[in-house]
Amino acid sequence: MAKQVVVNLVSAEREIWSGEADMVVAKTSVGEIGLLAGHEPILAVLVGGQIRINSTAGNVVVETQEGGFISMESDVVTVVVRDAQLVK
Amino acid sequence: MGAQLRVYRQKIKSAKTTKKITRAMELISASRIQKAQQRVAASNPYTSAVTRAVSAVASHSDIDHPLTRQVENPTKAAVVIFTSDRGLAGAFSSGALKEAEALSKRLTDQGMTVVYYLVGRKSVAYFKFRQRPFVRDWQGGTDQPGFETAREIAAEITDAFNRPNEDGGVDEIYLVGNRFVSMILQEPTTIRLLPLEIVEEEASSALEVFPLYEFEPEPEQVLDSLLPVYIESRIYNAMLQSAAAEHAARQKAMKSATDNADKLILNYTRLANAARQAEITQQISEIVGGADALATVKD
């Protein structure tokens, strides 16, 4: 099995989702980005749209309108959004 | 019943009613502290993530951003004061206001004019009573602050910071509010919000070396969109801290009020007993005296 990334998805008021995942897909200001384990450290600005997390436990889809940012280093992904709705 | 006795009974009754109210408020506050603390804890991951990201960008490049630029000769400062909406919380609001006054004095001594932004009904009342001007106020909901309010405040003061001075802009922005230290200690504190000093939440992580991040799009643009978020989260955090501190202060104040009511009731009960005894003694001596007098008349 491929290596996994640890994901923390937080909004201003609370932590929305956290756990291990295979891939995180989010929409940045310059286009969609998919993060897999082993990706180099990145800090990107997110715009409104969907954030998809593919995990072994099932896929998680989060909807955000205002965006935020995503950062990744040493296989830890932190997604920070101002407002977020867990869609699935 | 004697007049004195009636007065004491009245006072006991009134102390008992007050005690019922303060006891109820104490219990309500006690239960709300928990919730307020949970809200602070719930917002912590966000705050630390934002702080970390900002520090990462800041450590990366020599940042020169309008929001971090220090003005040579600051002439105007804004103070945002966080108080409560309701009283009966001991020195909670007055503590914050006192801190703000001390800060304004310091700033005025440095040759700055100070403008105010007020959060909470108590600070507005304080300013209105003294007929002092303030720029804007936010009232209601200080015990359960919403993120929306934090964003409004952030937008307003960032806007003021970005405007030129002649146009009502300011050079520095300070936040004054109570910080929740523990259940028995709440501290009025001052934070300089703008120009930004990026502070790590914990001293240990300040030594941490950040990896070489790839920025998307460019570091400047990332910082552009990060800093407002950072400011919002700082304000939101200040509001949550203030809310938790408010409940803790109220619980403490109401606890001592209940204790004082108990003491009052005890004292007045003793006085009332003494008054009742005195009355009885007097009545007895009156009867004895009366009987004596009648006996002498018969003889």
Explain this structure.
The complex is a heterodimer of chains A (88) and B (299). Chain A has strands spanning 5-11, 15-21, 23-28, 31-36, 42-46, 49-55, 58-64, 68-73, 76-81, 85-86. Chain A is an all-beta fold. Chain A has one domain (5-86): F0F1 ATP synthase delta/epsilon subunit, N-terminal (ATP Synthase, domain 1, Sandwich), CATH 2.60.15.10. In chain A, β3 and β4 (31-36) form a beta hairpin. Residues 200-206 of chain B have low confidence and may be disordered. In chain B, β4 and β5 (186-194) form a beta hairpin. Chain B has helices spanning 3-60, 92-109, 121-129, 147-162, 203-206, 219-298; strands at 76-82, 113-119, 136-138, 172-180, 186-194, 214-216. In chain B, 62% of the residues lie in helices and 13% in strands. Chains A and B meet through β1, β5 and β8 of A and α1, α4, β6 and α6 of B. β5 (42-46) of chain A pairs parallel with β6 of chain B, so a sheet runs across the interface.
Q: What's the helical proportion of residues of chain B?
A: 55-70%
Radius of gyration based on Cα positions of chain A:
12 Å
In the predicted model, the low-confidence regions of chain A spanning at least 5 consecutive residues are none
Could you report the average pLDDT of chain A, rounded to the nearest whole number?
86
The end-to-end span of chain B amounts to 35 Å
Number of DSSP helical runs of chain B: 6
Give the class-level CATH name of chain B: Alpha Beta
Major beta-sheet overview of chain B:
5 strands, mixed
Subcellular location (chain A): Membrane
Family (chain A): Belongs to the ATPase epsilon chain family.
Keywords (chain A): Ion transport, Membrane, Transport
GO molecular function (chain A): proton-transporting ATP synthase activity, rotational mechanism
